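Researcher: Re-running this chain for the archive, since the previous output was lost when a drive failed. Same request as before.
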Amino acid sequence: MPTTSEAGSRLSTLPFTDPQLEPGWRHVVVPAADPRPLAAAPRMLEVSVAGAGRLHTWSQWHEATWGTSLLVLDGGRVVHETYSDRGGAEGLGPDTRFLGASMTKSVLAHLVGRAATDGELGLDDPVVRHVPELAGTGYDGPTVRHVLTMTTGVDWVEDHRDPDSLASRLLGCFPDGDSRALLRTVRPGVAPGTRWAYNTADSQVLDWVRERATGRDYADDVARLWRDLGCASEAVVGIDAAGTALAGGGLAATARDWARIALLAVDGTTDDGTRLLDPAWVEAAARSSYAITGVGRLPSSITTHAGFGHHWWPLDDAGTRLTADGSRGQFAAADRHTGAVVVKTSLWPYDDFLVDRQARDLSYLGLHALLDLFVPH
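Model: Regenerated structure tokens:
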């Protein structure tokens, strides 16, 4: 979740581990039913990142942004893989499941894209057509497209510093509450489609709609995706007491499996050429749907280096580069022209919002610098 106000949330304290290792977490295991490990072809990478008033080598950049892992793919092969202890994290490696935080939202986007591709869900469907329990709430009026692009206009502020905010209360439903009961309290704000605001409630509602349309809960649909992508390791998903997944922030997976999530965003196909996502969906997901969500048009407290598409973050207006983005520096970025992928997990502090902002800005610059190294295959 790329907002500086997430400091103090229970999820943002655990970006390098997974729910089953933490007392009190409820979780569901996502099996690796058809593992196809990524091939490796390591080579030296020479890169310079200009940012924060200096030039950084890739290792200096990784250090300056509190990196815990850095994985680079070229041609679907691992050409670089590094794990680093940061902020109390120890023993990290290829088997570590990194909590993706809001990178989880981009996995949700893939699930919604499959449902749309398969004709199970229409983007112009009203939310309440699928979830009538939300009639009379702020979600009575917005469409699937609005929740997908975070333009519902509902009365919501993603502020986790205020323990009484709806955002804090939503995360507080994990593991012992009922998150969907809280969603039924969200009120209208402004007209749908007229304002963008970062909103994890929109993600949770989007998943509720997807579940009703497909008949599959989040963990089951991720398991289907995991099998089809050939993900090589189990993942875990945090759930509340009612069994609802934190589809907006609760998935933990290895760096290599996060890379497969980014690879699917390149052209919507798996490594064996099976098409999972319609080409039109892949193109739309990588672009901003509104002028207000274009690259550089989001609130500067979020980022000036990206826009917002279909629960992915476009890095250019042409839809060539995009990334998943999670709090405290979790990224899975892809260049759709070259097929290169960069996964970066991090553990930077939130105490000083300026440190958070600089680390995020520097991370985006470094993602571009690394992706610039590669040419189309």
